[in-house]
Amino acid sequence: MNDRYLDAVVLGRRSLTERIAELTLGAADGRPLPMAEAGSHLELRFGGSRGRFLRHYSVVGPLSLDEAHEPFWRIAVQREDRSRGSSYIHQHFRPGTRVTVSRPIGSFRLARNLPHVLLVAGGIGITPILAMMRSLLVRRQSFTVFYGGLDRAAMAYVDEVEAMGGDAVTIHEGRRDGHPDLDALLAWQPPGTTVYVCGPGPMIDGLRDAAVARGWDPDRVRYEVFNAAHRPEDTDFAVRLATGRVVEVGAGTTILDALERAGVDTLSDCRRGECGLCLTDVLDPHEGIDHRDSYLTIDERCASTQLTICCSRAKGGLVDLDLS
Fold it and tell me: What is the value of pTM for the model shown?
C-alpha cells in the first residue's frame, strides 16, 4: 500500500434516511485519523481483494460545534437504483468490514476571509456543505445556507444543519415548495458573496447560469459535481490500446480504474474530471464519447479527440485510445 492509501475498517453504521447510510471509518491498526479539512473527500476502494469499485465520498466531520476532534472519518452513502457501487456498500458494509481508503483529498477547498459565503446543497451534496458550515461557524465568518431536497424525510443531516446554522439556514422541500428560484437566491446575497455548491448537475448549472446573467465573476461560484463518473444506465464497454490490447471496462468502474488493474501506465490526480491530468488522446471514438468532465470545452468535447479517463465513457461498446 502506498502513502496515498491506508487500510481501514468500518467502525459504525447508521441509517440517516431510507436511502442514505452513514459510515464511520477508522484506521485498521487502531491509530487515530487526522482531522480532514472542510470540503475534502476520500477515495474508497472496495469489492473484493482487487477493489473493483472506486468511489469518492466527502468527509462530513463532527455534527455539532460541541464535538471535539473525531479520530475517525464520517461519510454518508446514498443508495442509487442500479448503481453497483452504492448498492454494494449498502448490502455488504457493516462494522468490521475492511476497506482501502485514501487520505483526505482537498479539491473543494473553502477559502478564508471571504466577505460572505453562500453554501448551497442539493440532496446528498449536503455532506461537504455541512463541514464547510461548521468551519465558517468556528471562524465566525458571515454565511447563509440553502439546503434543497425532495422532502425533509429524504434529507440527511437536516436537523444537524438547522441546529448549527440557525437563522442562516433555509430548508427547501421540492415536493412542498416547488422548483427553487436560484436567481432570487443570488439576488438576496450581500455584495461580494462567493457560492459553494454541491449537488445535482442541473442545480449547479442553474446557479452558474444565474450568476453569469447577473454579471458575477465565474470564480465566485465554486462547485463540486457528485458522482460524475457513474450513472445507473451505464453499461460495459472495452478500450483498445495502440498495441491492439483490449481492456474491459465494467459498468461499475471507470476507464482509469480498469487500466490501472490491467497494469497500464496512466497519469491521474483528482479522479473527478476536474484537473485534466488524465486527459488521453482518442484514436477512434467509434460510436462517440460520453464526456462527464468539467475540464474540456464544448468544442473539445464535440471533437472527441481526447477524453478524461477518470470519468468519461464510450457511448458504444468500444473506444480506441493512444495508450500502450
Answer: 0.80
